[in-house]
């Protein structure tokens, strides 16, 4: 039997961090949820999740109650898990106190913890990026059970057409509408009509929070509904049958599970789309220039004409990179015509498109990408789109290399474009390559430039940028001062200080060139 220390290690530091860990820990029993209104149901050796608990006094009381009942651990989110009174109570009770990282969905924790206790790999339980094909309907049903525990109500997971994809095992709260929905694998037309009349679906299409639908005159019980959305696309919804309005904490925890369900739903779509999987394998052969690239091109129906490789990188601050990437994959597959040529490699999506006008060509995809980016929700992470040069099919690895080179510029923030094309950024690429070569040669350590670095670091001055602006605008202090957004007199004063610190002849053209090379290397290759 796994103990709490082993359980935390299995789930991993991305989600859990021990705050208090007793020297001796016994085996773990079950995973239970305690909400602020009702901490009951806690048993010996249980792992107790404080869903929605943000009040210090409640957290202290929960930890005390768990100690009395000999629970194994209490899991809380910041800031209450770091409160000294909560920590002190946990130590006194001999109880493990575990911090749940901000942004983690409680349903995900239930799922992971249950999987770890059952002896399965937590990473596999959620379908790690390396095991996308392992995600199936069974995972959606297990996820529905985990969500049902979080919201404390029976749950159905439905697609955008109200088809039931999965439902929880709980049937303690039900009504004829839920029974008909599960039996028919979709919401009955008369039930859908009632929800449409109340504007439920209109609310789902516009927002991301949970929507409460009161009891219907015909006896249909209240519903708590949350949209399942990723990458600007409404993938479906989750419906919980409740007896009354739920607490704000429960509703918020329910809404937080939507991103996890969206990710699993997208993984399931990838798994069931055998054509997409087969196509991705063939596209990777083209991108890598492997021995079977010619056969792959024939099977994909690629014409003997120039093609471009488009690299798309999506990085989300909340850890939903994969979900947004899969949503983008689905969108591109629909957007570039009959023969989708998309693959993922190293966390980046690559699309191969012919460099010609018309449907399915690069100009059409470019316009579609720009429109899609502009239509995305403000909260969605903006994708980085880098485009390689047009090359013959046999040279697609070169186009991919060019796309990766542009993508590296976008990642550093040195170039800001919604869609960055290699040929249009030749000047930036020249500077980046020159900077890389200069950094490899160690030019930054030569000469007196370190004095400016030390002064900027120690005194908060801005002399490196001042010198760079002066070198970029020789003989034009007004243009240089505009670049720095300072008064020309301020700029002139700074340059006097720069000259005295450097103690070099700035009138010497070779000195100016050498300083500019050093500054360019530092700016365009900051990690070199």
| Count of β-strands | 15
Counting DSSP H or I runs of 4 or more residues, the number of helices is 22
- Derived from helix and strand composition plus strand pairing, the structural class reads alpha/beta
Query: Beta-strand percentage?
Result: 5-15%
Rg over C-alpha atoms, rounded to the nearest angstrom: 29 Å
Structural summary, described in words:
With 528 residues, the protein is of the alpha/beta class. Helices cover 48% and strands 14% of the residues. The chain has 22 helices and 15 strands. The chain has helices spanning 4-11, 56-68, 84-93, 106-117, 122-125, 137-151, 176-184, 189-197, 200-206, 248-256, 258-272, 274-288, 293-300, 321-335, 362-375, 396-412, 426-440, 449-459, 463-472, 477-484, 488-502, 509-524, and strands spanning 16-20, 31-34, 47-50, 73-76, 96-100, 155-159, 164-167, 211-213, 223-230, 233-241, 307-313, 342-345, 348-354, 384-387, 420-421. The protein has a five-stranded mixed beta sheet, with helices on both faces. The protein has a five-stranded antiparallel beta sheet with strand order 7-6-10-9-8, with helices on both faces. Strands 12-13-11-14-15 form a five-stranded mixed beta sheet. Strand 4 (73-76), helix 3 and strand 5 form a beta-alpha-beta unit. Helix 11 (258-272) crosses helix 14, helix 19 (463-472) packs across helix 20 (477-484) and helix 19 crosses helix 22 (509-524). It is globular.
